[in-house]
Structure to design on (185 residues):
């Protein structure tokens, strides 16, 4: 009787393990369509151009006082239109001069967009994400002394303008920390 019970338990264990392995192998296959290079270019085309920017930074736990700024941004295709190069320059009442460069592209292996940014404060966040409707939503974890926090950026077209929103989560949910409006020149 004891051997029969052990046999049943071992058999059930193997059946469960095989079932879990099959589910993992099929769930790992994306049901989303992989984007072609031309589809990627179509999705990102609204970001390409020369812009003047206006930035608003509402008061938040990270920023006790509102801030505003103005600047310029140039976003252009590079490497056979496989990536976007971002050159953003601004001056604002919170950080003073703020310059950043970035590379935005599509990772076909992982079916997601990637963004690497570098700024004059020495930060170098790398974001990953995808489009939800017409909005490109990307996320990362920002390291800071003592603790890190989650950051989400949203890019979308708003009439003739391009909007960028930055939301930070310091452990109490995402809150808007920056909104930039870019208008073509």
């Amino acid at each position: 009787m004891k051997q029969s019970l052990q046999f049943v338990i071992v058999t059930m264990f193997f059946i469960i393990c095989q079932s879990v392995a099959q589910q993992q192998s099929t769930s790992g296959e994306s049901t989303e369509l992989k984007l072609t290079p031309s589809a990627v270019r179509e999705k990102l085309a609204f970001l390409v151009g020369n812009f003047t920017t206006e930035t608003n930074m509402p008061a938040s736990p990270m920023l006790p006082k509102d801030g505003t700024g103005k600047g310029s941004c140039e976003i252009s295709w590079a490497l056979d239109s496989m990536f976007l190069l971002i050159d953003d320059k601004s001056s604002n009442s919170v950080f003073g001069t703020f310059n950043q460069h970035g590379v935005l592209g599509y990772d076909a292996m992982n079916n997601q967009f990637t963004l690497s940014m570098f700024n004059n404060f020495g930060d170098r966040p790398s974001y990953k994400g995808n489009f939800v409707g017409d909005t490109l939503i990307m996320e990362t974890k920002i390291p800071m002394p003592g603790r890190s926090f989650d950051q989400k950026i949203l890019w979308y077209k708003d009439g003739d303008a391009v909007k960028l929103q930055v939301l930070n989560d310091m452990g109490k949910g995402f809150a808007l920390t920056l909104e930039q409006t870019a208008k073509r020149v």
Remarks:
- Residues 31 and 111 are 11 Å apart (CA to CA).
- The longest strand covers residues 67-78.
